[in-house]
Design goal:
The complex is a heterotrimer. By secondary structure, chain A is mostly helical. Chain A has 15 helices and 2 strands. In chain A, a hairpin with a 2-residue loop joins strand 1 and strand 2. In chain B, the strands form 4 sheets. Chain B has a 6-stranded mixed beta sheet, sandwiched between helices. Chain B has a 5-stranded antiparallel beta sheet with strand order 13-17-14-15-16, with no helix packed on it. In chain B, strands 2-1-4-5 form a 4-stranded antiparallel beta sheet, covered by helices on one side. Classes of the chains: A mainly alpha, B alpha+beta, C mainly alpha.
């Protein structure tokens, strides 16, 4: 009896240690952001202080600074603005395309699907140079519209895959039945397929939004003035005055910007995985 | 010495709930083909998995070869198992699949080839050694699974409903192959199934389980002709035994023993039978209807006849059951009881 | 009903090609214009002397490539791109497998743990990187504090995590691995749950212990999904400029530059669009190779 029990206990201990190690390594920076946000500058910048405890009382000063003396709120607004419009554009482009590709089985559909897939392999760090010229040519430099124009290049391919997999799982018979009942194919698409696909579409909305908030290169390249920044670029660049890093406010901003995205992501994680592994796992 | 033995074996999955397996005691006989038979949820698979070491018992002991194995991992128990899906390793060739147990138990590499080829020839799959599992048919996969099981020359084979995934036609031939295999190899085998036809055809003994409790262990003849309780009586046989409540007793008789009076020679109990449905199955007829008159009025019963040409729907006939084919069960315990003289009228 | 079926088939068949084309053309057009076009432009610029702010542009042949290949910072950038990409991938694949094994069975608090370990991936890259910048700060680094408290270093003599070339490279590598780990873990976890439960059980009955089961049965079965995780991981790391930009801005002394960050430094900050374009084109060969493997993977998945 003892042998079995000790083996199981040992296994559990190893399991806990492994999990704890990884969790700490991965989540520690965010915990650190949390603590730093509430520590007084005096506490932060005294080398001898134990950084793991509050040597002075926790303070809301950094938050106050962040919200009143920086453009942080404006950046949040910018990001939300760009996010919403890009989501709309993405849905308008990707939903019909995904449906067409899902129902158009055969050479055509496959080839196009692969073609769209390949666009993912042309990264922003390659396109940003020519696109900066295009943006300047269109007179959109330092405008959020430049981002709105360009962001769908990476949100649309991903959304098409996600939705393709989703549409393929809807039985064809449903649309056939609708067409027998008198709807045209497009009518069946609008009146039947889209309402059924609400959760898939919602997933696309969430992920498009998170992709927008995470993007860095284009936001850095196209936007220059402080008030037009997105949070991904405004925080690292403009919360630094000269060479001085306002770490307290900086960390608070990072945390505030990251957590909502994290929550949304977690809710839709399984769909997200499906998007990446479509085809590889069956 | 029994190859596999369990003592008061119990498994409770969730505290406070009824156990999946409750106080099961069994002893296999050397070289026998023992069937665990029961409906889904009866605990037969859980019982098998505990013997294999894939589930830990809540209480009780498991012995293999006379040794208590509760603390031993599956690999230490000298058992082999064939899963319902066969669980062949898809990325390995048939040869490597069969060789895997040898590799895992650190058998010398030089011996692998010899043993794999022996197991393969025993099952007639020598030609398939280079193929991958996805290229094989259902029957071939079963044979590979068996080869993989036998290659280690285990003390016990455990089979978990290996025929359920095969289509009906294939099932019969695969079943026959399993029987032949067992006769040739002679290893003690425990076979789990919910199909009572399989159990009757294949088993040297059948252990009938329901809700984690053993209802009866016996030869196919025992469980069919002398069921220990009403559950066993109705689980075996299709259509099931006809049961009728009569006072503090339940009386049962099998459909094949319920025949027109004219065909019954021995002392028999008469019934009036109103025919309501006739099914022709080719080899026999299944006639269902209700009893008429007397205390059992309206009771639905089945009859199995080799010929029903003269029967008309809606008509009432004189049927009878030979006295010695009547089974009696105690109404409250549902267990087998002594025959009593009863009158129906 | 059979007649109605045929009628639909002809209706559907007649409508589909046109309707289908109409439905996906907007997306295809958009991508052609905003991805295909700029891609060709990048190639064009690489052979020109385009600059920011100037509308003049002349064809200069291979001049850009010649000067790039001679520049030491370019050679460092290529070297770093490969080091960061490959080393982080190795760390991540090993770590993610271990983590996926630990997360496979449900246990109390698994949801919270999953949330926590996902943070590096879901947070915007720049923000995670800034967090690390604070942790690796030359004066106030918490790591330094711990090491000093453990008497491994005297105060003020601790290493500059982002200031010394070797350490800076290690730091960038660390942050890349940290960011990628959750992504791979989650994909591998999905792959593991796709493996039928009875396969590892069969291996256990066959006599395989824990490690043999993992290394010889489970992980080989996960090959397609491991490939997905690796290929995407390679792309994400290889084409990223954010981590370097935020942590070290390519320094100290260009020692942590990568192809994308160098392209940005020269092309945008240095206004030399042509040089930037030329450097970023060096990303293409590896991406083509990765694309080839991705297509092969997708094709194999269709076949089996």
């Amino acid at each position: 009896m003892a042998k079995g029990i000790s083996r199981r206990i040992w296994g559990k201990v190893v399991h806990v240690v492994v999990l704890a190690t990884f969790t700490i390594l991965l989540a520690f920076p965010f915990y650190w952001m949390l603590i730093t946000s509430f520590k007084q500058n005096v506490d932060l910048y005294t080398m001898e202080n134990n950084p793991f405890i509050f040597n002075a009382k926790p303070t809301l000063d950094h938050l106050k600074f962040l919200f009143t003396e920086t453009r942080f709120v404006r950046w949040l607004g910018n990001t939300a603005f760009v996010g919403v419009i890009v989501v709309v554009i993405t849905l308008l482009l990707a939903v019909p395309a995904a449906y067409a590709l899902a129902r158009l089985s055969g050479r055509w559909g496959e080839r196009l699907g692969i073609g769209i897939f390949l666009t993912y392999l042309v990264p922003p760090t390659l396109l940003f140079i020519p696109l900066s010229r295009v943006v300047a040519y269109l007179g959109l430099q330092d405008s959020l519209w430049a981002l709105i124009l360009v962001y769908p290049t990476f949100t649309v391919p991903f959304s098409i895959w996600l939705l393709m997999g989703f549409f393929k799982s809807i039985p064809k018979e449903l649309e056939d039945a609708a067409m027998v009942d008198g709807l045209t194919r497009f009518g069946a698409f609008v009146k039947l397929v889209i309402p059924i696909s609400v959760s898939g579409i919602l997933t696309v909305v969430i992920f498009t939004f998170t992709l927008v908030t995470q993007e860095f290169v284009y936001a850095l390249t196209f936007i220059s003035s402080e008030s037009n920044q997105m949070i991904g670029t405004g925080i690292p660049i403009f919360l630094v005055r000269g060479d001085v890093y306002y770490w307290g406010a900086l960390m608070a901003a990072c945390l505030i910007a990251s957590l909502p995205i994290a929550f949304m992501y977690n809710l839709f994680l399984d769909r997200f995985i499906a998007g990446f592994t479509v085809g590889a796992v069956k | 010495m029994a190859v596999v033995e369990t003592r008061d074996l119990t498994k409770v999955f969730k505290e406070g709930q009824v156990g999946a397996v409750n106080n099961v005691n069994l002893e296999t006989r050397e070289g026998e083909f023992l069937v665990f038979l029961g409906p889904s949820g009866s605990g037969k698979t859980t019982l098998l998995r505990m013997v294999a070491g894939l589930e830990t018992p809540t209480s009780g002991e498991i012995l293999i070869g006379g040794q208590v194995v509760n603390d031993l991992s599956p690999r230490e128990r000298r058992i082999a198992m064939v899963f319902q899906s066969y669980a062949l390793y898809p990325h390995l060739s048939v040869y490597k699949n069969i060789a895997f147990p040898l590799k895992a138990q650190n058998v010398k590499k030089e011996l692998h080839k010899e043993k794999v080829e022996w197991a393969a020839s025993l099952l007639g799959i020598g030609a398939l050694l280079d193929r991958k599992p996805r290229e094989l048919s259902g029957g071939e996969r079963q044979r590979v699974a068996l080869a993989r099981a036998i290659v280690r020359e285990p003390a016990v084979f455990l089979l978990d409903e290996p025929l359920s995934n095969l289509d009906a036609k294939l099932r019969a031939s695969a079943r026959e192959e399993l029987e032949r295999f067992h006769r040739r190899v002679g290893t003690t085998t425990i076979y789990v199934t919910h199909d009572q036809v399989e159990a009757m055809a294949m088993g040297d003994r059948v252990m009938v389980l329901n809700k984690g409790v053993v209802r009866q262990i016996g030869t196919p003849t025992d469980v069919y002709d002398n069921p220990a309780d009403t559950f066993v009586a109705t689980f075996l046989g299709s259509p099931p035994m006809n049961l009728a409540e009569f006072g503090d007793l339940i009386v049962g008789f099998r459909p094949e023993h319920f025949r027109p009076v004219s065909t019954v020679i021995d002392a028999a109990v008469p019934f009036r039978f109103k025919v309501e449905n006739i099914e022709y199955l080719g080899s026999e007829w299944i006639v269902s209807g209700t009893l008429a008159g007397g205390k059992l009025e309206g009771k639905k019963v089945f009859s199995r006849l080799s010929s029903a040409q003269n029967l008309q729907l809606g008509a009432t006939y004189d049927f009878a059951v030979p006295q010695f084919h009547l089974k009696f069960f105690d109404r409250s315990s549902e267990k087998r009881a002594e025959p009593k003289a009863v009158s129906w009228q | 009903m059979a007649i109605a079926r045929n009628k639909i088939k002809s209706l559907g068949a007649a409508q589909s090609p046109l309707l289908g084309a109409a439905m996906f053309s907007p997306a295809v057009l958009y991508i052609l214009l905003l991805v295909g076009g700029p891609f060709l432009l990048a190639i064009f610029y690489a052979f020109s002397d385009a600059r920011i702010g100037s509308t003049e542009m002349h064809f200069v042949g291979l001049e850009n490539f010649r000067s790039i290949l001679q520049s030491p910072s370019f050679r460092v950038a290529i070297r770093n791109s490969f080091i960061f990409t490959i080393c982080s991938q190795i760390i991540v694949i090993v770590g993610a497998n271990i983590l996926a094994i630990s997360l496979e069975k449900t246990f109390r608090g698994r949801g919270i743990i999953r949330f926590l370990i996902l943070l590096p991936w879901v947070a915007p890259i720049a923000l995670g990187a800034i967090g690390w910048k604070w942790i690796l700060d030359s004066i106030y680094s918490v790591i330094t504090w711990v090491l000093v408290a453990a008497h491994m270093y005297k105060p003020f003599s601790a290493p500059m995590w982002l200031g010394e070339p070797r350490l800076a490279i290690a730091s960038v590598l660390l942050v890349h691995s940290w960011r990628l780990m959750p992504f791979s873990t989650v994909i591998l976890l999905a792959g593991r749950t796709a493996i039928p439960k009875d396969i590892p059980e069969a291996a256990a009955v066959d006599g395989a212990g824990f490690w043999r089961t993992q290394l010889q049965i489970v992980i080989p079965m996960m090959r397609p999904i491991i490939s997905v995780a690796v290929l995407f991981g390679l792309i994400f790391t290889f084409t990223d400029m954010t981590v370097v930009y935020i942590l070290t801005a390519g320094g100290p002394f260009d020692s942590t530059q990568t192809l994308p960050s160098l392209a940005f430094a020269l092309g945008i900050q240095g206004s030399d669009l042509a040089a930037g374009a030329a450097i970023s084109l060096f990303l293409v060969p590896l991406l083509v190779i990765l694309a080839y493997f991705m297509l092969r993977l997708a094709h194999r998945a269709e076949v089996t």
